[in-house]
Amino acid sequence: MPPSIFLPLLRELASTYQAFEVYSAVHIRSLDLTPPQFDIVATLGNTPGMPLKELGEKTLITKGTLTGVVDRLADKGLVRRTASPSDGRSQIVQLTPQGEKLFARVFPAHISHMERVFAQLSPEELAGITAGLHRLREAFAAAHGSDGETP
């Protein structure tokens, strides 16, 4: 397949992601959080907590950055680390009661903020975009699995 066929898609995908990030980040900063802090609070909300490794996988924050962000949230009293009952080498990160209150305030506010954009699209458009992105992700995963490279 000649690159000219998929290059416009790559450009649009990158531009869309950048626009999403800018729109989202401005609102998150208005909530007195950084995007990585919000990501951690949102991921831990309504959970009993999770190991640091799992938190990194679910947030897509790199390990080095994740440790610093969790440290800053802990300093603010929003998260705590506890020893894992099943693995002594691992720690569970969970929201504190103050972190739960923050989650209850900022998560719905941010969802409402994001909904303003998605409300401009019909349910059919949203379903089509979702299906297309899902198919694209599957194609990348299949290619990754078949090219002999490791993550």
- What is the CATH topology assignment? Arc Repressor Mutant, subunit A
Please give the alpha-carbon distance between the first and last residues.
Answer: 25 Å
Mean pLDDT: 92
Instruction: Please report the total strand number as a whole number.
Output: 3
Sequence-ordered SSE layout with sheet pairings:
Elements: H1 3-30, H2 35-44, E1 50-51, H3 52-59, H4 63-75, E2 79-83, E3 91-95, H5 97-118, H6 123-146
Antiparallel strand pairs: 1-3, 2-3
Helix pairs in contact: 1-5
Descriptive account of the structure:
By secondary structure, the chain is mainly alpha-helical. It has one domain: Arc Repressor Mutant, subunit A (Orthogonal Bundle). 70% of the residues lie in helices and 8% in strands. The chain has helices spanning 3-30, 35-44, 52-59, 63-75, 97-118, 123-146; strands at 50-51, 79-83, 91-95. A three-stranded antiparallel β-sheet has the order 1-3-2. Strand 2 and strand 3 (91-95) form a beta hairpin. Helix 1 packs across helix 5. The longest helix is centred in the N-terminal third of the chain and has 28 residues, at 3-30. The chain is globular and about 50 Å long. The two termini are 25 Å apart.
